[in-house]
């Protein structure tokens, strides 16, 4: 029976697609290995890819088991892992089978195989298994509560009710987190960004930053989940800073309009999308709260920092580079500060792309995302259309935040028909614009 199963695996492996991970004898055997309480020891191959994923496997298994010598875990393939080559005959498979992504569990022996083109797929064996240490759980909970109270205190200075609405948003955020699993790793992110971070490549700024993060924390899904939660937390917080300054409490309304969309909530379960949304909200918050009209060395420092953040963010989400140009037109001033902002942002961005690669932007016409936005963002669109029509004279002279969001929306809505990844950004921009129009235009009458 054992030989029959092995031969069936041998027969199936050549037919497996690049996105398929094989288990032998089955996935349950691997799950039993995770929970059997035996100690383990990892031996990686000699290639960079085997060493990188061996680092991941070692750190991941340490969350389930103690290190020791009861079970030997081999990572790589027979061509780059001498120890695996010695023991491979126990699988009764040909050597070339070790080039396929697979998890093979034998008595006190586990093979995690693949070559440099597909070894990243061994992550899928662990992707549904999370285990936090008690220290991590307490630290995460304490940090979340402390930061929430800090920002609530900060917002208490911005109005009578702002801090109450902020705590309400944090409560809704915690409720959403506790009732769902807002975290997925896309295969493209896994193969490129995550794998590059494990390898220590400086291909992209995001992979470089993740590698630094992994050196401090651990190269596991748990670390990515913690990062994801904090990104969502700070995104929800920064939304209040993009509401009109006298009415910060209306950040609650912006949050509500955004999260009322099921597609928005679904899209930000992807880490890379959440990072892009966070960068957009961060730059919007910094831009709307920067003092572009004052003359002081401190303000010049703010412009320098904002330019650096925009350029760095554009290396992760290239669309962000348009922000300085819109700011130049919607914050008119006799000072050359806006020109400095645009010039520094472009300069830093050009310097950045000489060091790091930027994500490719693929555009192909597909109106489905645009139709989803027209359906799920109908409330914002009705409010925007009504206010723009009734205050059309004021629209011609719009300046500041409402003009910034208006022109961003004008540009991004057509692009949404060519890039579905822009949906959460358009949802945020339309929500922020609707709230600003309600506050600023209606109060002019």
TrEMBL record:
<protein>
    <submittedName>
        <fullName>Uncharacterized protein</fullName>
    </submittedName>
</protein>
<feature type="transmembrane region" description="Helical">
    <location>
        <begin position="164"/>
        <end position="185"/>
    </location>
</feature>
<feature type="transmembrane region" description="Helical">
    <location>
        <begin position="338"/>
        <end position="358"/>
    </location>
</feature>
<feature type="transmembrane region" description="Helical">
    <location>
        <begin position="370"/>
        <end position="391"/>
    </location>
</feature>
<feature type="transmembrane region" description="Helical">
    <location>
        <begin position="138"/>
        <end position="155"/>
    </location>
</feature>
<keyword id="KW-0812">Transmembrane</keyword>
<feature type="transmembrane region" description="Helical">
    <location>
        <begin position="304"/>
        <end position="331"/>
    </location>
</feature>
<feature type="transmembrane region" description="Helical">
    <location>
        <begin position="275"/>
        <end position="292"/>
    </location>
</feature>
<keyword id="KW-1133">Transmembrane helix</keyword>
<feature type="transmembrane region" description="Helical">
    <location>
        <begin position="403"/>
        <end position="419"/>
    </location>
</feature>
<keyword id="KW-0472">Membrane</keyword>
<feature type="transmembrane region" description="Helical">
    <location>
        <begin position="223"/>
        <end position="244"/>
    </location>
</feature>
